[in-house]
Amino acid sequence: MKKVAVVFKSKYGSTEKYAKWIAEDTCAEIFKVSEIKADKLEEFDTIVYCGGLYAGGILGFSFIKNNYYKFYDKKLIVVAVGATLKKDEAIEEIKEQNLTDEMKGNVQIFLLRGGLNYKKMNFIDRLLMFLLIKSVKLKKAEELDDDTKGMIATYGQVVDFTNRNTIAPIINDINN
Hints:
Shape: elongated
Structural class: alpha/beta
Order of helices and strands: EHEHEEHHEHHEEHHEH
Strand content: 15-25%
CATH architecture of the largest domain: 3-Layer(aba) Sandwich
Number of strands: 8
Number of domains: 2
Helix content: 40-55%
């Protein structure tokens, strides 16, 4: 039986929720990235890294990137958690922004929708969201895509797009 590790870094909870679901469904060991050493992960066959997506960067992913030489012979799956609906387009951007050329052929990327809770956001994140909303509201309505319209409509509210059913392709990939 394959030995699976799920490693995560979550800022507001959506990523942690997905990491726990993946670990439960695969009987994996789960670790916060801040509490695991790279050497410990060498004993696993499959490593799943889950991190929130912020401006195209995956939160805490530098841990995997900096230790890739220890994991290159493992099955590596990266789960980015963000708010976008433009999945295929975003996955390509995530690959370009986060993976080295060597990693691109060896790392499977998945993108899941998270949530937004403005009350939990730190000052900087709230300020960035405020400035983003302010700038997109200056555009004409016909120039806005579905992601942007949804962001404007839910601004300041608590929204949770997490869905346990969306991890099915990840579970399938882990088990194959």
